[in-house]
Design goal:
Strand order of the largest sheet: 3-2-9-5-6
Cofactor: Zn(2+)
Number of strands: 16
GO biological process, one term: alanyl-tRNA aminoacylation
CATH superfamily of the largest domain: Threonyl-trna Synthetase, Chain A, domain 2
Keywords: Hydrolase, Metal-binding, Zinc
CATH architecture of the largest domain: 2-Layer Sandwich
Shape: globular
Order of helices and strands: EEEEEEEEEHEEHEHEEEE
Radius of gyration: 19 Å
Protein name: Alanine--tRNA ligase
GO molecular function, one term: aminoacyl-tRNA deacylase activity
Number of helices: 3
Oligomer: single chain
C-alpha cells in the first residue's frame, strides 16, 4: 500500500505518529505514513529519530525512496534497534536541518528566476547548493546576489498548486530542468509557485520549501564556475559575501 507522504501537503510538519508496515533485511523501515522527506530531485532525505512506546529512540540516516516513489524507506543508523511490524512510532524530523534545506531549496528556485536559463543539474545542501545552467554568457556574481536578495526582501508568498500528470504532459515547457524530470506516476504533480498568482515563478517540484521568500534569509552567490563551453555552475551559500551563515 502506498505510503501517505504527509510532507507533500505540509512542509512544516516535523512530527507525527505512524505504524510500521515492513522491515527490510537491510534494516530499512516502511511506515503507513511519514513526515520525513525522501531524497529526490537534488534534495537530501530527512534525518531524525523514531520514538518507541517506551521512550527509546531509533536514530535515522537520510530517508530514501524504494523501488518506486510511493515507497519511502527510513534508514536506521548502524546498530540501532529494529521495530516490530505493527508497532506504533512517533516520528521526529531533525527540524533545524530540514529547515535549512527548505530555505536553500527555495533560494535555488529564486536563482532560476534571476538566471532564466535551462537547468542541467542541481544539488541542495545545508551549507551550499549548486545549480548548473545551460549558458555561455558571462555574468557578475555580485549582481546576481543583489537580484536574489531583492526577491528575498520583497517577501513573496511561496505555495503549492497541484496539476495532474496529464496536464504536465500537455505543458512540457513549464519544466526548467533539462535532465531532472518532475515526480510522475502519483497522479498529480506539485507546482511550487512564488508571488501572488505565480507572478514570480511556477515550477514543478517535489521538494520542500519555506512559505515566504523572506525566510530564505541572507544568501549569496559564492562562485560561478565554467563547466564547459555552454555550462555554468552557480554555488550559493547562506550569509553575506565573505562571511559564514
Amino acid at each position: 500500500m502506498p505510503v501517505n507522504a504527509l510532507y507533500r501537503d505540509d512542509f512544516y510538519l516535523s512530527t507525527c505518529e505512524a505504524v510500521v508496515t515492513a522491515v527490510h533485511d537491510d534494516g530499512g523501515i516502511e511506515l503507513d505514513q511519514t513526515c520525513f522527506y525522501a531524497a529526490s530531485g537534488g534534495q537530501p532525505g530527512d534525518t531524525g529519530q523514531l520514538e518507541r512506546a517506551d521512550g527509546s529512540k531509533i536514530a535515522l540516516g537520510p530517508t530514501k525512496h524504494g523501488a518506486s516513489k510511493d515507497i519511502i524507506i527510513h534508514v536506521p543508523l548502524d546498530n540501532e534497534p529494529q521495530p516490530e511490524i505493527g508497532e506504533t512510532l512517533v516520528l521526529h524530523v531533525d527540524w533545524p536541518r530540514r529547515y535549512r534545506l527548505m530555505r536553500m531549496h527555495t533560494a535555488c528556485h529564486l536563482l532560476s528566476v534571476v538566471c532564466s536559463y535551462p537547468i542541467t543539474g542541481a544539488a541542495v545542501g545545508e551549507e551550499e547548493s549548486r545549480i548548473d545552467f545551460d549558458m555561455s554568457e558571462t555574468i557578475d556574481k555580485d549582481e546576481v546576489t543583489a537580484r536574489l536578495m531583492e526577491l528575498v526582501g520583497q517577501n513573496h508568498p511561496v505555495y503549492l498548486q497541484w496539476i495532474t500528470d496529464d496536464e504536465l504532459a500537455a505543458n512540457p515547457d513549464i519544466v526548467k530542468s533539462k535532465n531532472v524530470r518532475p515526480p510522475l506516476g502519483l497522479g498529480r504533480v506539485s507546482l511550487v509557485c512564488i508571488g501572488k498568482n505565480s507572478s514570480i515563478d511556477s515550477q514543478p517540484c517535489g521538494g520542500t520549501h519555506v512559505s515566504e521568500t523572506q525566510e530564505v534569509g541572507q544568501i549569496h552567490v559564492a562562485k560561478i564556475e565554467k563547466k564547459g563551453k555552454e555550462n555554468r555552475r552557480f554555488r550559493i551559500r547562506f550569509g553575506a559575501p565573505g562571511e559564514e551563515a
